[in-house]
Amino acid sequence: MPATEATPAVTVENLTKVFKGQFGRKAFVAVRELSFTVQPGEVYGLIGPNGSGKSTTMKVILGLLAPNQGHTQIFGRDSSTVESRQDVGFLPENPYFYKHLTGLETLLFYGRLCGLGGAQLRDRAQEMLNLTGLENAAGRRVGGYSKGMLQRIGLAQALIHEPRLLVLDEPTAGVDPAGSRKIRDLIMAFKDRGITVLVTSHLLEQLQEVCDRIGIMAHGKMVSEGRLDELIAVENQTEIVLEDASPELLARIREMVDTESGKTKLLQMGNPRTTLERLFLKATEDSSDVS
Amino acid sequence: MKRKLQALALLLVLGLVKLPLEQSATQSLRTHGLLSKPVDLSLRESLGQMGFAASLGGLRSLVASIMYLQAYTAFENVNWAKVDSLFQVTTRLQPGYGKYWEEASWHMAYNAASGYLTDKKLRPAIRHQLARDHVRRGIDILTEGLKFSPNDGRLWVELGNIYARRGLDFLSEAWVTMDAKKAGECYLRGFKNGALPVYERLGAYELLKAGDDESARAAYDILKRNYDHSARTPGLIHNLKLAEERLNIPAGQRIPDPEPTPVQRRR
Amino acid sequence: MTNRSQFPVPGSQFRAFSPARVWTLATATVTQLVRMKILVFLLVFSAIVVAAGFAFPVMNPEQQLKILKDVSFGALQMFAIVIAIVSTALLLPRDLEDRTLYTILSKPVPRFEYLIGKLLGVLLLIGGGLIVMDAVLSAVLWLRQNMVLAEAIHALEHENSATPENIAAQTAAVAKQGLTWGLHAATLAIFLKSAVVATLALMISCFASSTLFTIVITLCLTIFGHGQQMFRDYFFHGSMSAFGEKIASSLLAIICPDLGLFDIVENIINGIPATMPDLLNMTGMCLVYVVGYMVVAHLLFVEKEL
């Protein structure tokens, strides 16, 4: 965990966002007195069901929407100012880029919008293509990219100007397990390099592996927040996994627990289950080895 | 909401501020002849909705050309009333374009007039009246056109042509001079407004035919000046001689008689 | 990837206005619109010009050339106005729908630069198209002018009246209706008009909810704009009895730009020359409209919820 700087990467204070109703419909409160901070260098996951206000919060942080109350800051700067975006890279949910541009041209376009140019930009664009595994697709039109490739080019454009903060809105939505794994590996790599990441998702298993802290939103409010391992640890339970244990050993362990005084009891003993994702990845890796 | 109200306020302020600027710009461009006055609302019926809208929308010249083509078709179909009405619309759309006035008057004073004169299905009195009326119509068209373009030499020349050649002798049904004095004056106006030099001489010839002393004097001055400074065509010499006779110019001031033209005998 | 810790303080490289950013957005807009098969229209236009130049052989030389110019400039105007309205109306909604707008505005790009970039892109496209079409028209007109002059001189020779005077007069008459520098001024006027219309469309798209709404409203304002001189005359000089009529005319005079100011094509075709002060006059008015409407557009766009 990198050393905490004095200024948080993201500060959200008493944020309220109301969308006015049209044609007599009631106004909709998307976010209600939301407050949280994201420390520099950490990966913060904002989770919640559809309609909980996650995307709205992201858009306010990025200055795409104006709050009705409260304020948001990026590294101490008011996030509604244009300068604050110098240090932010954003990957929206289901990103779409100009279809007629190639992957490389897309990165050059966004790089120029960030003030980069010339050979520096070209080098940087190539670096991002290599990082996201798109070097072979750089000359193809983005209109022909798969969903996973679109997400990766989206990541590349978000990183083109070396931002200190990455905001990722549902980065693995609609992406296959292999693609999701790549994206999660990238997030871990960003974290190792000291980039702060704010990520939203409603795919909980995926966030579990990457996040340092989690905020759970529902109906526009933060209902729970804290460090991931603290939130999901079941404190009074212990898990031991053995390989090639004999039945006699297992019987002895069971006996030891039974004879232990106090409230200790054996809840479960049996073969642990892998995840469907791991099974998928192993199967696809094995089939690619065979071919 | 605040910005929307600011936007609306700015739009209204901009709107008010631009009005005098627009007036001034329009006036300046109209003075330089680049902008015409708006199309008259009374043309709406003649042009139809689309034609009127197109005329307002900067396509006035195109609409005029289309009306002209329709007039040409009516001419081919020998429908003189339609030719006249279509040309009325065309000239009102582009009153500054002399060619439309010229052709409109040509169709009336020449084509329609001759057409009616030679129409044996009509009684002679009717034929003569119609022919004369259409020649008069041709004159009226050119006169109206000259109100918009008083310096258009071509229109003056065409008017001169009608006065010189489109008088009708009822007995012989032949085209004769209608009004030599007016013809002469028109030719001279044409020359002053850029028509070919020949029209100055033609103007003098017509003035000489007019018969009065004042016209004869004016003709003599023009012809003498041309004789002294430019080509001495046979027509010029002949008419100058006539003018000298008419005005009793002293012998010492007269031009020498031309050399007789040798007669060539056929073998 | 490089270590970020030595990097400068965030925001220090940011420039409040960057021509490079505007140009990047403009060129992306041009390529985006070229995908809309604008080039097909250029080919159609060229076909119209050639047809107009050779379709009416029975006309006298002046009329042949006039009709060629009338039809060609009519097509030029239609192209410029239609592209100005439709392509501008599509830009913002498309970027919004595709979420491209999010990725652009989440970069350090001020909203006013986005608008300027989009407008500049449309104007580059219209301007480029007009230049090409002007060149095609000039070439065909030059060709046709020489052909009709040769036919006219031949006709004079046939009538034994091919004197130097008559030939000079015929040459002058044909030249007046032929290719002149003034015709390029007419093309410039069409460009200025389309710039105003494009800015109007962009302004309306900043608050409109759909492309169709933007197109319809802009079209209405364009139509009214051509009659704005009449409304203005009523405003300044008219004596209308009905209060409602006066209010309606005044509102239209205030809201609509005077697009009739740029309708010098007709008189240019008739041979009236356009001087530099005239062109500056029109350009000045165009700038007043464009700058004014863009400021309004920015005020509307700044508050637009994305």
Brief digest:
The complex is a heterotrimer of chains A (291), B (267) and C (306). Chain B has 10 helices and 2 strands; from the N terminus they run H-H-H-H-H-H-E-E-H-H-H-H. By secondary structure, chain B is mainly alpha-helical.
Detailed description of the structure:
The complex is a heterotrimer of chains A (291), B (267) and C (306). With 291 residues, chain A is of the alpha/beta class. Chain A folds into two domains: 10-232, Rossmann fold (3-Layer(aba) Sandwich); 247-290, no CATH class. In chain A, 34% of the residues lie in helices and 21% in strands. Chain A is built from nine helices and ten strands. A six-stranded mixed sheet of chain A has the order 6-7-8-3-9-10, sandwiched between helices. Chain A has a four-stranded antiparallel sheet with strand order 2-1-4-5, covered by helices on one side. In chain A, helix 5 (177-192) links the parallel strand 7 and strand 8. In chain A, helix 2 (103-113) packs across helix 3 (118-131) and helix 3 crosses helix 4. The mean pLDDT of chain A is 84. With 267 residues, chain B is mainly alpha-helical. Chain B has helices at 2-31, 44-76, 80-93, 98-117, 124-148, 153-165, 180-192, 198-210, 213-229, 234-246, and strands spanning 167-169, 174-176. Chain C has 306 residues and is an all-alpha fold. Chains in contact: A-C, B-C. The interface between B and C is large, with 47 and 63 residues.
* Strand neighbour order, sheet with most strands of chain B: 1-2
Largest sheet descriptor of chain C: none
- Let me know the number of strands of chain B: 2
What is the rounded distance between the termini of chain C? 32 Å
